[in-house]
């Protein structure tokens, strides 16, 4: 019932964002665009990282650009449902997909009917701040506490992550392999669902993005155990990285936009200019700084290169981990 209510609230929020966009005249610094209503889809459920990213982006971008943005949640099948929605939709800039790395991972790891290569990168906006987190009452104070518990109690540790195609699931599988632990990896369809299960104690520890649990950290209900990055998170300088705690695991995640292959280059060019402007907007900058987003503007060409390199790296990773058969 709670998830249903969240879905209703998320839909209402999408309507409100659309209305907000129509209530303001376009800032003349922003480029012309062929559509006044644009749908942005996310494979995240309400409260997940992709959902939070898009809703907060358009909260600022809609009024500035004079566009009615509608955010639509299309979860399920590890992002395959969202890819289908894009590839079977128009290639005119009226429908875009807010992505992290999931659409690439699901393509590399399985054989979905539509692949990341059926879409084209438009622009990247932010990099994520991946973390491991626990409820405040958890007995785990460090990552080594988690490792020790799992070694002393084989098969009992429940480590929550996203779907098989998510970057946080990949991080958990890497953690499991490199520590040699016997533990349960609990799959979740959204970051919001995972956070609820960490809070309730249904899982012992979760893997996600710092922005997904920001409000719970502020409320004193969630504690970040480790930054899964090469360096500590700016807003949490006292939280050591996983590497600093003796577990060599890091993650790379981004937040960007893709569209159906064949979308005119003018669409990407307009988005490139708009994203550069909104990243400097005080309102949006305050949001992503507070929520641990790292500004990472990449034009379409560079975003495409990043995507292809990541796909090659993931293919190698999954093969080495035994999660994908070696090509003949």
Automatic annotation (TrEMBL):
UniProt keyword terms in alphabetical order: Signal
Gene3D superfamilies: Bordetella uptake gene, domain 1, Periplasmic binding protein-like II
InterPro entries assigned: BUG, Bug_dom1
Listed Pfam families: TctC
SUPFAM superfamilies reported for this sequence: Periplasmic binding protein-like II (SSF53850)
Signal peptide: 1-25
Alphabetical list of PANTHER family matching this protein: BLR1237 PROTEIN (PTHR42928:SF5), TRICARBOXYLATE-BINDING PROTEIN (PTHR42928)
Family per similarity comment: Belongs to the UPF0065 (bug) family.
Protein name per Swiss-Prot or TrEMBL: Exported protein
Organism (species): Terrihabitans soli
């Amino acid at each position: 019932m709670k998830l249903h209510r969240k879905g209703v609230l998320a839909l209402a929020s999408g309507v409100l964002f659309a209305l907000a966009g129509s209530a303001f005249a376009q800032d003349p610094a922003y480029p012309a665009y062929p559509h006044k209503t644009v749908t942005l889809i996310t494979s995240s459920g309400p409260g997940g990282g992709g959902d939070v990213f898009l809703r907060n982006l358009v909260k600022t971008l809609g009024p500035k650009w004079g566009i009615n943005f509608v955010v639509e949640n299309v979860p399920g099948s590890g992002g395959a449902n969202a890819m289908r929605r894009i590839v079977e939709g128009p290639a005119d800039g009226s429908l875009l997909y807010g992505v992290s790395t999931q659409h690439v991972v699901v393509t590399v790891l399985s054989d979905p009917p539509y692949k990341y290569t059926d879409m084209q990168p438009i622009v990247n906006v932010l990099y994520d701040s991946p973390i491991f987190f626990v409820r405040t009452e958890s007995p785990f104070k460090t990552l080594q506490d988690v490792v020790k518990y799992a070694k002393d109690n084989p098969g009992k540790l429940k480590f929550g992550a996203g779907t098989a195609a998510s970057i946080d699931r990949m991080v958990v599988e890497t953690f499991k392999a490199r520590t040699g632990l016997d533990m349960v990896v609990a799959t979740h369809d959204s970051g919001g669902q995972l956070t609820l299960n960490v809070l309730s104690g249904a899982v012992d520890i979760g893997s996600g993005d710092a922005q997904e649990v920001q409000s719970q950290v502020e409320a004193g209900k969630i504690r970040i155990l480790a930054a899964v990055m090469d360096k500590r998170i700016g807003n949490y300088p006292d939280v050591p990285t996983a590497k600093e705690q003796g577990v060599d695991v890091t993650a790379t995640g981004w937040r960007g936009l893709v569209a159906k292959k064949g979308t005119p280059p003018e669409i990407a060019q307009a988005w490139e200019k708009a994203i550069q402007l909104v990243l400097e907007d005080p309102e949006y900058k305050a949001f992503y700084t507070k929520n641990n987003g790292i500004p990472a503007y990449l034009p379409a060409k560079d975003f495409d290169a990043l995507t292809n390199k990541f796909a090659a790296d993931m293919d190698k990773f999954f093969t080495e981990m035994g999660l994908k058969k070696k090509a003949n």
